[in-house]
Amino acid sequence: MVENDVRIRSMVRQDMPELLRLMEGIVKFERGTDFRFTEAELLHRGFGERPEFGAFVADRGDSMLAGMAVHYEIPLMHTLRPLLMMKWLFVDPDVRGRGIGRRLMGRMARHAMDTGHERFCWFVLKDNAPAQAFYKGVDAAPDPDWDRWQLGAEAIAHLAADG
């Protein structure tokens, strides 16, 4: 497969089996557990009455996807404009280094501009040096002001008992 053989486009319903495969691949890479998505769930969440996410896919032309950039919006922001988030950028390991990730990022950038977003954001694992180097290569930078925080199940139960 040559880079030019890959077409970047918006997801369609027929992509759900391949999108599911790519999502499971990135979740495993991120050391995630308890992967629960099904094709039916993706169809509902991506194409339901109120779609919760969108995706740009790298279509190989052989009913296989080479990669994806999954995105969603956080609607309520202090600027009165939603924030565009990239949930996942993932390219199959066997086709990395061919410019597909950069093309998916370019499509995300075009989507940001087309929808009036001045920026878009995403999370990167702290130990994923290759991803960090890739993002720096497209002129991205870590957010200097924000770190992600979380409450786990035990902390939620403890705090809820106080409330």
TrEMBL record:
UniProt keyword Transferase, yes or no: yes
Entry keywords, A to Z: Acyltransferase, Transferase
GO MF entries: N-acetyltransferase activity
Residue span, N-acetyltransferase domain: 6-162
Keyword Protein biosynthesis: no
PANTHER family (alphabetical): DIAMINE N-ACETYLTRANSFERASE, GH14572P-RELATED
The protein, known as: N-acetyltransferase domain-containing protein
Organism: Bradyrhizobium retamae
